[in-house]
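The instructor's notes for this session suggest beginning with a concrete chain rather than abstract definitions. Hand out the sequence below and ask the class to guess, before any prediction is shown, which regions might be ordered.
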Amino acid sequence: LYLYLSLWRSKSQINVKLDDLCLSMGLPKAYRIPSNFKKHILEPAREVLKKFNDVWFDFDRSSIHKSKEGSYHLRLKLTTREKSEAERMKAEQIENILRLHFGFHSADIKEMEAIIRSTPKDQFIDKLLYLSHGIDKVQNKVSYVKKSLINRFQT
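After discussion, reveal the predicted structure:
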């Protein structure tokens, strides 16, 4: 699996027919059943890849779905050490913006942590830039920003 993922490391996501992937990996037909592939390949591989390699997949944002033609497709969200570090730095930047420009405290940031983590960082920063225009007229900046972010990004 690592060798296959390495081929696509520059992509943020790959979509592949489960049959084709199993064939290229030399797996028996039993692994072409989504539950078997997930249980015996994806679940064991996720932590090993993340811990020991330079490319891995986000298990929670990956899926196996059935296409209109009836074949199963695997969608993996790929991450590399470089992408992971860039995302971490952007998250820190977002926290600093919230503290410096909107008066957030640690408890406020913790309250918004799930939204910060799950939202594409560039979209989040764009929303903060938009909110910064005219924020001086708002009495309770923290509450206003929280509500705006929740309305925009909470699913």
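Then share the key points. The beta strands are 13-17, 55-57, 63-66, 72-80. The helical segments are 2-7, 18-25, 34-52, 81-102, 106-111, 113-118, 121-132, 141-153.
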